[in-house]
Design a protein that fits this description.
Strand order of the largest sheet: 1-2-3-4-5-7-6
Distance between the termini: 16 Å
Strand content: 25-35%
Radius of gyration: 14 Å
Number of helices: 4
C-alpha cells in the first residue's frame, strides 16, 4: 500500500520535471485533451504513460504499473483493483485478497483517505 503511494509521488515528480505546464498530476488530462501539449500516450523519463477516461496508467522501465484516476477537484484517486494491479506488477509480485487490501488501506488513515466507498486518495 505504501509502495503505491510512493510510486504515485515518484510519477508526479518525474512528470512535473519534464512537462513544465504540469502543476499537479491531474493536469495531464487537460494537456492531452488540448491535443497541443502532450499526446494521449508517450514516454516521460523512465515512465511510459497512457491517458484513459478519467485517469492515467504509468509503467516504469522495470515494469511496475501505476494506474490512477482523478476526481473532479484534481485529486488522485484509486481503488482496490488499481492497488492489486500495482502489487502484481512489482519485481517481487504481491497477490493479496480484497479484504487484506481493504484492511491495509483502512489501517493507514493518516496516509490514505476513503473519499467514497471503495475509492481512496492520499491524505493531505
Amino acid at each position: 500500500m505504501l509502495g503505491y503511494v510512493d510510486a504515485l509521488k515518484a510519477v508526479e515528480e518525474a512528470m512535473r520535471a519534464v512537462i513544465t505546464p504540469l502543476e499537479r498530476l491531474s493536469d495531464v488530462l487537460g494537456l492531452v485533451r488540448s491535443r497541443r501539449i502532450i499526446s494521449r500516450s508517450g514516454r516521460v523519463g523512465t515512465y511510459s504513460y497512457l491517458v484513459h477516461g478519467a485517469g492515467c496508467r504509468f509503467v516504469s522501465d522495470n515494469g511496475t504499473e501505476l494506474d490512477v484516476d482523478f476526481a473532479a477537484d484534481g485529486s488522485e484517486i484509486f481503488d482496490l483493483w488499481r492497488l492489486r494491479c500495482h502489487g502484481l506488477s512489482l519485481p517481487e509480485p504481491l497477490d493479496v485478497t480484497d479484504q487484506d487490501l481493504l484492511t491495509a488501506v483502512r489501517s493507514l488513515q493518516s496516509v490514505v483517505t476513503e473519499v467514497r466507498p471503495g475509492w481512496f486518495s492520499v491524505a493531505n
